[in-house]
């Protein structure tokens, strides 16, 4: 059986060193097999390393990259739902067993297909058996929708709650899935962007949510200033709590309200870097990002969905046109596919240098 996991990617020449150090730091997921290709080794992780742990690899002169990969489970290990449910469900239903789930803190989120609805408690209990740290299993009960990007959930096993504490790269985030959108699948993106921020930069996070970008940037560099904006009062309260818990309150300044109004009234021309993580409608705010940038320009991290039949090139042209309409110009652009979000749909990020 296969399972998706965060991993460390390293060249084969340093593979053994990384495996030994990952074991020493209790990072390696030993229920999954280490994978390799022609040039690299992929070490599955039980959790993401903290910034201090990550520095251990750098101190040894080892270049590692954090990514996501599908791994084979170790032989003899029963850790997937189909194995656990094999003697509890009729054979014709086993094929419908969910193949993936998200874990936020000690809460597992699973999408249960219609044919398994009457057995959703069995599925939830199997999730708790295969993930010992999980205390609550929530089934998706609708799509992400509305201005606040919220989804309905139904507790199918464990404690009936939606609030938890999620840890990411040595930071901790108070999250309430009923009040604010949060995706653990963006953890690498949070750190990837944070690692690009230079000393003395001013960053505007237009749709901050509970603060994963803002907090990680603030913890990574004590010379920066971050303006974190969100329109959702529930997310805003969690954002303020996370700023205090992670001790970045001297570097992160928060605003509750519509990003367009706040930038126009208070943050016009202040930013070296703008983060736009609202993929469904970010294109409508490209002019806002351009207004927030300093007169000489800066970098915009623009997240969007690419749905077939549109290509990445089509979406890129749409973004560049929006920048030009705002009176700016894209000087350089790096395009990266972040994740698959649905059949024939991907989340994409453009790191765009704009002048």
Please name the defining characteristics of this protein.
355 residues; alpha/beta; Alpha-Beta Plaits; GMP Synthetase, Chain A, domain 3; Rossmann fold; 3 domains; seven-stranded mixed beta sheet; four-stranded antiparallel beta sheet; 17 strands; 30% strand
- What is the number of domains? 3
Question: If you compute it from the alpha carbons, what radius of gyration comes out, rounded to the nearest whole angstrom?
Answer: 21 Å
Number of DSSP helical runs: 11
What is the H/E string? Answer: EHEEHEHHEEHEEEEHEHEHEHEHEHEE
What is the name of the CATH class of the largest domain?
Alpha Beta
The CATH homologous superfamily of the largest domain is named Vaccinia Virus protein VP39
Low-confidence stretches: none
**Widest β-sheet, arrangement of strands:** 13-12-11-14-15-17-16
The pLDDT mean sits at: 91
How much helical structure, as a percent, in the residues?
Answer: 25-40%
Quaternary assembly: single chain
Shape summary = globular
Beta-strand content:
25-35%
Question: Span between N and C termini?
Answer: 49 Å
What report would you give on this structure?
There is one protein chain. The chain folds into three domains: 2-72, Alpha-Beta Plaits (2-Layer Sandwich), CATH 3.30.70.2580; 81-161, Met-10+ protein-like domains (GMP Synthetase, Chain A, domain 3, 2-Layer Sandwich), CATH 3.30.300.110; 185-354, Rossmann fold (3-Layer(aba) Sandwich), CATH 3.40.50. The chain has helices at 15-24, 51-59, 81-85, 91-94, 120-130, 187-194, 212-220, 233-245, 259-267, 286-292, 312-325, and strands at residues 2-11, 35-36, 40-44, 65-72, 101-104, 107-110, 136-140, 153-158, 163-168, 171-176, 202-205, 225-230, 252-256, 273-276, 298-307, 330-342, 345-354. The chain has 355 residues and is an alpha/beta fold. It has a seven-stranded mixed sheet, with helices on both faces. The radius of gyration is 21 Å and the shape is globular.
């Amino acid at each position: 059986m296969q399972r998706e996991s965060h991993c460390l990617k390293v060249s084969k020449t340093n593979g053994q060193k990384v495996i030994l150090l990952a074991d020493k730091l209790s990072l390696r997921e030993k229920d999954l097999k280490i994978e390799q290709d022609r040039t690299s080794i992929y070490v599955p992780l039980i959790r993401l390393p903290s910034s201090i742990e990550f520095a251990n690899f750098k101190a040894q002169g080892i270049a590692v990259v954090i990514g996501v990969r599908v791994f084979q489970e170790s032989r003899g290990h029963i850790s997937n739902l189909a194995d656990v449910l094999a003697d509890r469900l009729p054979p014709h239903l086993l094929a419908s067993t969910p193949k993936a789930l998200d874990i936020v803190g000690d809460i597992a989120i699973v999408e249960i297909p219609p044919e398994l609805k009457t057995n959703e408690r069995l599925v939830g209990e199997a999730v708790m058996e295969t993930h010992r740290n999980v205390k609550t299993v929530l089934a998706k009960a609708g799509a992400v929708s509305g201005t606040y990007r919220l989804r309905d959930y139904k507790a199918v096993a464990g404690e009936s709650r939606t609030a938890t504490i999620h840890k990411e790269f040595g930071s901790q985030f108070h999250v309430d899935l009923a009040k604010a959108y949060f995706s653990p699948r963006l953890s690498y993106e949070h750190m990837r962007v944070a690692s690009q921020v230079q000393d003395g930069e001013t960053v505007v996070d237009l749709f901050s949510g509970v603060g994963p970008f803002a907090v990680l940037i603030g913890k990574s560099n004590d010379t920066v200033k971050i303006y974190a904006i969100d329109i959702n009062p529930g997310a805003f309260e969690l954002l303020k709590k996370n700023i205090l818990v992670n001790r970045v309150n001297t570097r992160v300044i928060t605003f509750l309200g519509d990003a367009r109004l706040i930038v126009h009234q208070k943050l016009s021309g202040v930013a070296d870097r703008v983060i736009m993580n609202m993929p469904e409608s970010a294109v409508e705010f490209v002019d806002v990002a351009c207004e927030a940038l300093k007169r000489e320009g800066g970098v915009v991290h623009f997240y969007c969905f690419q749905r077939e039949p549109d290509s990445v090139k089509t979406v890129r042209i749409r973004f560049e046109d929006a920048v030009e309409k705002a009176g700016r110009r894209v000087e350089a652009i790096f395009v990266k596919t972040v994740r698959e979000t649905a059949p024939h749909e991907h989340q994409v990020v453009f790191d765009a240098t704009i002048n």
